[in-house]
Amino acid sequence: MTATLLPHTPGQSRYGTLASALRERILQGEWAPGEVIPAESALAQAYGVALGTIRQALALLVEDGVLQRRHGKGTFVTKGVDGASMMRFFRFRGAEGQSEPPQSRILSSRVRRATTAEAQAFGIDKAAAHVFQFERLRSLNKQPCLLETIVLPLPLFGALAESDTARWDHLLYPMYQSRCGVVIQHTQDHLSCSQLNTTQAKRLRLDAGHPCVLVERQAFDMAGRCVELRTTRGDAFSFKYTAQLR
Which residue from 15, 117, 188, 245 puts its CA 20 to 30 A from 127's CA? Predict the structure, then answer.
């Protein structure tokens, strides 16, 4: 590994500056998701810093979820979040012991102008901002269980907007990575209760006005940018939530 000049950032510690430099190399794709990064000793030599400094920098990236340590194997770039986590909020009949992911069907999709709130969330210029929106129905054993509206910023997800939705994968986050190069590093979910309107109830085979749990999600990439807004509705009578406090 060739020597690298570490830039000086006023007001930032040496290991903080080093962490920023390593993060940028990851974002530029030098080390792919799931790939092991060079050994601590090699990185320390390349940047001309003490081993303790490189360890502090890597610890920051591990804390941020950019890197993952595997005992006896090394430090790896995180693979990101998978696409099945939304199901943890619900327990549907026949889902016990379910090994296959829920089936997905895209009901509609379109490109439109971003709202002010969407442009602000995505950090894009409202005047020229466009988004790709689609509605997805998820089913278990051919029974509809979750109705989702998902909004993605353009041009970041242009490859999806231009593709045939019938050929999409059932899990979105691995597809974001493979087709658009976007790794979902973490998500933030807000849960509340609501009621289904006539169209939503029909798609979920429930009665209009039926109580539902509303999950509003923001998903963030490796750079900490919000890159997905998702609204999920599911039968409130199938809702479950388990938390452990220690």
Answer: 188
Q: Please, where in the chain does CATH 1.10.10.10 lie? A: 14-77
Burial of residue 43 (CB within 10 Å: 0-12, 13-18, 19+) is buried
**What's the topology of domain 85-238?**
Chorismate lyase (3.40.1410)
Contact 94, 141 (CB under 8 A): yes
Distance from C-alpha of 43 to C-alpha of 202, rounded to nearest angstrom:
57
User: How far is it, in rounded angstroms, from Cα 151 to Cα 185?
Assistant: 17
Among left, alpha and beta (phi > 0; psi -120 to 50; other), residue 29 is left
Q: Which tops the pLDDT comparison, 125 or 98? A: 125
Chain segment 149-182, per-residue pLDDT in tens: 999 999 999 999 999 999 998 889 889 988 998 9
Residue type (1 letter), 68: Q
Fold of 14-77: Arc Repressor Mutant, subunit A (1.10.10)
Chain length of the chain: 246
Question: Using CB atoms within 10 A of its CB, is residue 149 exposed (0-12), middle (13-18) or buried (19+)?
Answer: middle
**DSSP one-letter code for 236:** G
More confident residue, 209 or 16: 209
Half-sphere exposure of 148 (CA within 13 A, CB side): 25
Domain with CATH 3.40.1410.10 in the chain: 85-238
Mean pLDDT over 61-80 rounds to 83
The Cα-based distances of 88 to 106, 130, 154, 188, 205 in angstroms read 21, 31, 29, 14, 21
